[in-house]
Specification:
The structure is a single chain. By secondary structure, this protein is mainly beta. It has a domain of 118 residues: Immunoglobulins (Immunoglobulin-like, Sandwich). The chain contains 3 helices and 10 strands, in the order αααββββββββββ. The strands form 2 sheets. Strands 1, 3, 5, 6, 9 and 10 form a 6-stranded mixed β-sheet that branches. A 4-stranded antiparallel β-sheet has the order 2-4-8-7, with no helix packed on it. Strand 9 and strand 10 form a beta hairpin. It starts with 18 loop residues before the first helix and ends with a strand.
């Protein structure tokens, strides 16, 4: 909506989405049309699921991985915050999928990107650069305090970093 009027916007959000991805945003009236490999959902189960940002699956995160995380005993009730980036500009190989993280717990990040020249973790104005391999950025990181934690990347020639993933760290 712009100025109270509907405006069409092209989005890749549901282009070639798998049934395991669509189950987080669409519930067919007829259960026979739930063709995902994960268990079928009732309307009550679907409505109780945590929301996802549209860019969540653009980062290469599978629906199956999201399903496993959502059903894990330590799931904090919400998924990692993702930011609206072009499709597959960065592909998450390894990262926590839960929004809420605990301080003093080790985290592993591995993100593949041909676009970003630098990546870092930003927490409470502290920057920790990620190690860059051929096409992948990696970092084992232990947050020492609570607060917001961002995974950010910088494109060649860009003046600023771009947010990729966002978390909340608690003590």
């Amino acid at each position: 909506m712009r100025n109270g009027r509907y405006v069409k916007v092209l989005t890749e959000t549901f282009f070639l989405a798998t049934p395991e991805q669509l189950m987080f945003t669409h519930l067919p009236l007829n259960e026979a049309w739930q063709s995902q490999s994960t268990p079928h959902l009732s309307k009550a189960q679907f409505e109780a699921m945590p929301g996802l940002e549209p860019a969540f699956f653009h980062l290469g995160i599978s629906g199956e991985d999201a399903w496993r995380q959502m059903n894990a005993a330590d799931f904090g009730g919400g998924f990692v915050r993702t930011y609206d980036l072009p499709y597959h500009i960065a592909v998450v190989q390894q990262a926590p999928l839960s929004y809420r993280l605990r301080a003093e717990h080790a985290l592993q990040f591995a993100i593949r990107s041909d676009t970003f020249q630098q990546m870092a973790i930003l927490q409470n104005d502290h920057w920790t650069a990620m190690d860059k391999g051929d096409r992948e950025f990696r970092l084992n990181f232990v947050p020492r305090e609570g607060g917001d934690l961002l995974v950010v990347g910088k494109k060649p020639g860009a003046a600023e970093f771009t947010a990729i993933l966002g978390y909340r760290v608690t003590q």
